[in-house]
Design brief:
This protein is mainly alpha-helical. It has 2 domains: 44 residues, no CATH class; 76 residues, no CATH class. 57% of the residues lie in helices and 0% in strands. The protein contains 4 helices and no strands. Helix 2 packs across helix 4 and helix 3 packs antiparallel against helix 4. It is flat. The two termini are 23 Å apart.
């Protein structure tokens, strides 16, 4: 699997990473509890405040929780649903003539990994 862990030692990279996360949060509609949408990270575009370390940790925790929920759901899914998940990973993988993007490649690999990890929890799967 590709190493897509950001280098937080580089301040310029960290700032770009935080802005990208803020944009992602803004587009997904995620807003802190009780906070107006315009004060959410990235709510005013890319000139919003950078995410604090605590916010990055919370995002990391949420991603881990979501990964495990997806594994549980896939473990109970049909063979067709697992095939569809693999097809989606193939779909986002770079096609000939297009520039491969390491994050997309990593996402496709992670999707396949989730399907394979779910296989360990399927009924009748060897342990």
């Amino acid at each position: 699997m590709l190493d897509i862990e950001p280098d937080f030692m580089d301040p310029a990279h960290r700032l770009r990473h935080q802005r990208a996360l803020a944009r992602s949060l803004s587009k997904s509609g995620a807003v802190a509890h009780g906070e107006p949408a315009e004060s959410a990270p990235g709510g005013g575009g890319s000139d919003g405040p950078p995410l604090a370390d605590a916010e990055l940790v919370q995002l990391h925790i949420r991603v881990i929780a979501l990964e495990n929920l997806v594994i549980a759901i896939l473990a109970m899914g049909s063979d067709r649903q697992l095939e569809l998940a693999r097809d989606m990973a193939d779909y986002i993988s770079p096609r000939s003539g297009f520039t491969p993007h390491r994050l997309t490649i990593g996402a496709a690999e992670e999707m396949v990994s989730l399907v394979e990890r779910a296989g360990r929890f399927r009924r009748g799967a060897p342990s």
